[in-house]
Amino acid sequence: MNPIKVFLDSSVIIAGLASAKGGSREILNLAELGFLIPVISEEVVREVTRNIERKLPACLAHYYHLFRILPFIMAAPSEESLAQAKELINPHDALILASALSSRADWLISLDKHFLVLNNEELFMKTGTSGEFLESVLL
Q1: How far apart are CA 93 and CA 101, in angstroms?
Q2: Measuring CA to CA, which of 58, 71, 88, 100 is 20 to 30 A from 80?
């Protein structure tokens, strides 16, 4: 089985850190095992760091460990993808969507409804929650 390239929104990483079980934790586990190629962006890192420090300070050590062990690929938005993202989503999430588009990931996994309502065909990638991704891949 070839690894699936997935762009992880900050909500998935935070949920995976906050709970010892559940779909988001399984996504992180699969990435650690090499079944997924996890892609993130600088904006995702900033959002995760800000939220972990503020809401889940007990998870900070695990968060830093996560970034040492997972083979994250960093994606940056291109001018073209940023222009496309600004037409599809609110300005706050446009940088993250643009990075996902630039990464050419197979999936954008998020728990944020703003990403989940996007048209997969227009994005040339699938979008879904951690659970939707796992159901799709495991079937």
Answers
A1: 12
A2: 71
Distance CA 29, CA 18 (A): 14
Residue 22: strand, helix, or coil: coil
Q: How many CB atoms lie within 10 A of CB 36?
A: 24
Q: At what angle do helices 91-103 and 42-55 cross, to 10 degrees?
A: 130
Q: How confident is the model at residue 104 (pLDDT cuts 50, 70, 90)?
A: very high
Both tokens assigned to 97: 């969507």
pLDDT, position 123: 86
Q: Which residues, listed in sequence order, are joined to residue 74 by a DSSP beta bridge?
A: 40
* Phi, psi (degrees; rounded to nearest 5) at 116: -75, -20
Q: Cα–Cα distance between 36 and 130 in angstroms, integer?
A: 13
Band of pLDDT at residue 139, cut at 50, 70 and 90:
low
What region, left, alpha or beta, does residue 45 occupy, with left being phi > 0 and alpha being psi -120 to 50 degrees? alpha
According to DSSP, the residues that pair with 126 across neighbouring strands are: 107
| Predicted TM-score (pTM) above 0.85 | yes
